[in-house]
Amino acid sequence: MDIIRNPDGSLSFRTTVEVTVPAGTSMLEAEELLMKEINGAGASLTGKILESRDGGEPFVREGRRFTAKSKKEVRHVETPFGCVVVRRHAFQSSLGGVCHYPMDEAGCLTGAATPKFARMISRKMVELPAAEVVRDLRENHTRAVTVDFVQRLTGLVGVLAQSVIPAAGAGTLPAPEEVASVSIGVDGACVHMSMPARPQAADRTAADGRKGRTREWRVGMVGAITLYDKTGERLGTIYAATAPPEDKSQGKAAFWSIMEKEAAAVQARYPAAIYTGLSDGASDLLPWLRERTTRQVLDFYHACGYLHAAVGAFTHEAPAGEDPGWWSHEACRHLKEDEGTAAALLTEMERRLASTRRLGAADRTALEKAVTYFGNNVERMDYAACAAAGLPIGSGVTEAGCKLLVKKRLCGPGMTWGFTMAGHILRLRALAHSAGGRWASPWKAILT
Fold first, then answer.
1. From the CB of residue 387, how many other CB atoms can be counted at a distance below 10 Å?
2. Sheet with 59-61, side-by-side order of all strands
3. Phi and psi at residue 125, to the nearest 5°
4. I need a surface site. Which of 66, 153, 155, 385 has the fewest CB within 10 A?
5. Which pLDDT belongs to residue 84?
6. Cβ contacts of residue 227 below 8 Å, gap of 6+?
7. End-to-end CA, the chain
């Protein structure tokens, strides 16, 4: 290998790859031979690039002078091409203490991996279980790593990503003049968590096969900040997600902290937009949404669900020959299209509940639930005005986010999660599936 230092200070690395393809070799086998040789050359070049960044000059840090030890240390580094063995200087002050490794810092190593390999593995881990990541690396990249390495490296990337909130202007988000409204939706999704066994555990826990541990369903949180143009067309969504807290007394504090940063960044980029808070009937979500949005909307489809459930109390009102569900279909149509319908429906359901006409037990229970639900949320059900203003009325984006971020990755067959790793996966998965190139944008900050 030739290393040439150019007049402008750059370095040129030159190597030769020679591949011998025996007679009768299939094309697939030839490609595998080629990949093996190219990976070998790539690993060798990566090692030389890393060593070229290992300066031996003393430096001062925090008021102390650090000098290189006389003997270099051996370092194994995992790269996209293979594991390379490099030699690096260890720097220490005359007072002893912690050693510093300029090569690791200049090479932006994450644990024992180069930045490209760290990003590659963590991106795969976002979509696949660790064992599948190992299989994919072996079969498609001819890279052999262990499940433990994949999990630990992803954990390191997750720790770094926890402290990075990409600027709302980063990547390819729409320009401010394109965005007329922004909806902020929040919801929860259950995850099967593994935790230390508690005395007199509730019935919903179960032994997870490891001594002293149980499994329990806990709620992880998902937030969706969605951008719309003036016609109501969705332009993109920024997701946020957190795992359930190990200590239940912490509640949703970690989730609200992340949402606060994300919402502030979006509001700074789109100050002229109309901000709508979308959620279901969970009352604990409303205080935060009220503080950060100008209009709060109850998810239209949740409201319709209660009307459809209560239809049994109004089957006697269906015109001859009409479907028994006629009342709920008409009620949902008017609720969406006509102003003041929510209050009128609430009055109608209360009147039916108080009437002397007989109601079955199941119909009465469903009607009582609908009355309570509408009574608690009627001020957030002005769907006709929202539709006229081009504002969203459904939390489908948030519901889909729960399935995309949580259910699809964390709720596979037999999956049980620790709190720390679940948090890393959800944070990285939110970055990977958000609009505006969010996965790529934080890496510069992470690596520094």
1. 15
2. 59-61, 64-68, 91-93, 96-100
3. -65, -25
4. 385
5. 95
6. 173, 174, 179, 182, 234, 235, 236, 237, 266, 270, 273, 435
7. 30
pLDDT at position 318 is 67
Name residue, tokens 């030890």. 69
Q: Residue 394: CB partners within 8 Å, gap ≥ 6?
A: 278, 299, 300, 301
d(CA 357, CA 378): 26
CA distance 180 to 422: 35
Go through the chain and tell me how many residues it has: 448
Q: What is the pLDDT of residue 161?
A: 85
DSSP bridge partners of 38 = none
Residue 248's pLDDT is 85
Q: Within 13 Å and on the Cβ side, how many CA atoms surround 248?
A: 6
Residue with tokens 């992470």: 446
Q: Which residue has the tokens 């995992």?
A: 78
> Is residue 68 within 8 Å of residue 89, measured between CB atoms?
yes
User: Helix or strand or coil: residue 322?
Assistant: coil
Mean pLDDT by 10 residues, the chain (448 residues): 82 86 93 93 93 88 89 94 94 89 90 94 95 96 95 92 64 87 94 78 53 84 94 92 90 91 92 93 89 93 94 79 82 94 95 87 94 94 91 91 95 92 94 87 70
Residues 6+ apart with CB under 8 A from 81: 38, 39, 40, 41, 42, 43, 46
Residue-level pLDDT at 199 = 60
Which pLDDT belongs to residue 320?
65
pTM for this one? 0.86
Q: Do residues 416 and 218 lie in contact, with contact meaning Cβ atoms separated by under 8 Å?
A: no
Nearest alpha carbon to residue 402 among 282, 310, 276, 230? 282
Q: What pLDDT score does 82 carry?
A: 95
pLDDT digits 0-9 by tens, 98-119: 899 999 988 989 999 999 999 9
Q: Which residues pair with 3 in a beta bridge?
A: 13
Q: List, in order, residues 6 or more apart from 259 with CB less than 8 Å away.
A: 184, 186, 223, 240, 288
DSSP result, 167-212: -TTSTTPPPGGG--EEEEEEEEEEEEEEEE--TT--TT-EE-SSTT
Phi, psi dihedral angles at 439 (to 5 degrees)? -65, -40
| Max Cα-Cα span within the chain | 97
**102 HSE (CA, 13 A, CB side):** 19
Tokens standing for residue 174: 């729409």
Rounded Cα distance between 135 and 142, Å, is 10
Note the pLDDT of residue 240.
Answer: 94
> CA-to-CA distance for 202 and 248, rounded, in angstroms?
14
